[in-house]
Here is the input.
Amino acid sequence: MRQSLFRRVTRYTPGASLDPRENRLTEATAAVLERVDGLAHAVASALLESACTDDPAAPLDTEESIRRRELYADCRRLRDPRVSVRTQVATPRGRFVDLELLLRPPGRGGRGVLLWVEVKYGAGLHGDQLDAYVEEIETAHPVAEVGRLVIVLAPRNSTAGLRAVTGRVAVTSWQQLAVTIAAFDGGSLPDEQRFLLSEYLSYLREEGLMDPDRLTASSALALMEANTAGAAAAAICEVADRWIAARWGERGTHLTAAGRAALPAFGLRYWAHHAPHPTGVHGGLELNGAWLEWGLRNTRELDYLDEARGSWAFIAGITVTGKAQAHGDPAWMARMISSGFSFVWIGGWYRMVRLKYPDELLSAATLEAQGELLGRWVVDAFETIAEDPPRAVALQ
Here is the structure.
């Protein structure tokens, strides 16, 4: 019996050492392939068509090129195939394949197609896993029954480094596959399947795995002003840093410029840690491994954030060393959320933070004033946390 859609997509949750995005992407994809009639066949065909295209950096040898084209032809010849979609498929040697697509003819006779798809989204390859998959897929089903291929599916910006993995492994980008999914018609699909397909495409866009329809006037202007915006953000962070140092205390660990360990890398992705109480205030709150933090983050990296109004936002609040430090005090979480904080997960850590979008600084007339406005906001967030810390942090 197949899993429910919601069981699939909620199967993996963040942890201190686990980024669940890749597994959740795999499960969401599997759920849609199971439930939208004909989509699994279209996706398999698109993956195989892409696999037949030579890459100048790693051209296919003649034998492998012929094998892939025959496999693609076998897939195209299938009509209303029986489809099996599985995730985390165990191999004989104890490895786990992210996604398995098995398409077989509806009746007896004819040849099916077996694809093992290694889904990549943030994490890299591990050792010899692809070479092992190439060997082990040969024993998955009788050769006479199915043709087979191992495929890596990764964001476009990471496929270049994967092209030369092995001559028996194909590489395709999510953005390329998304074109096929967006163009999928499927004839007279039921309304609920069209809705599911539309939501899945929105998910790919939100995750940055699907190209925008086009460059719009607003995005073109943003691109043209990117250097100016980045420089302004860096200057505002620097002013805010001075203001926070004077009213709260010097920063501790912070993002540094490449090759300059002591120089803060103000601007996009900047972050800084601070002590749990203002300079000169002794005793009281100790964070026991947690820390106060502020910075400028890409909102796409904030898991559990319900909605984002833009790509970049300033954040300020507390980072905890484990989920229990916050979840152990639900009353505290409720108070924080009611006062404008959000409980999110960023880069391996749980955080209770406030967000301030760049347009919220426009009420200040000068860059100096904007930096001071940001600094005041950061200190206010720190004071709120210091006055009311999570019980599991304060009492450890």
Observations:
- Residues 223-394 form one domain.
- The mean pLDDT is 86.
- The chain has two domains: 5-206, 223-394.
